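Researcher: Go.
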Amino acid sequence: KTYLARRLVARGNWRHVSQDELGSRRACEEECVRALRQGWNVVVDRCNFDEQQRSHWVQLARSCRSGPAMQLVAVQLLLPLDLCRERARGRTEHPTLGPHNCDEVISSSTVPYDTPAHPGITPDPRPVLLFDLNGTLTSHTSVRRASGTTRLRPGAGELLRRLQPHFRLGWPGAHVAGGGDPWDTLKPLARYFGRLHRLALVDDDAYKALPGESSNMLLLPCWRHEDPGCRVLQRLGDLLLQLVAGLPA
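Model: Structure:
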């Protein structure tokens, strides 16, 4: 966060408001109001991990608005914890975080994080459901290469139509681990989603889940289009709709 904030300040029309440097949220709020009223762009360097914390800055900005031109932007930096720890260990000028305490502080700061929404827009409450394509919703790669065609698994279109009102649907990219072989392909979740308790990945390969994320995977049998009467997706839809009905808001 601080690196990005300093890059903005270097442009000459930004003020950096950092709780690490000012010591308290109240001091940050006062500095933020002062800078906005003086016509500066302001970057608030703070974790702000939930909607309530971010709402303070939204309200402050709106209270200082003198015209329709003000823009509010939330920047979410999604980095692996190991990378955060590695960077923190190398920081020698940070006022509160350094090699002596960074592991403990970062571990204690991994609270559930909600994804920022545009100010004034209610966040989408639907759980996130991510689908693998190859062997899950479409025919397996080896079959596609042999036949030159891609086929949808029976019931795929109907499944997505049934689920769309109740889930946010997506198709994740993949990360290839060090070896680079097909079986090293992984699909990290925590790197891109701060809260995994309302997130599931539907896949046909268990090895694609990272350590600690296997409980977020729904494992299906691979479909190679030999079975045109496959009813797996119909059963999956029935199960998911039963589960989502019992989830808390």
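Model: DSSP finds nine helices and eight strands in the chain.
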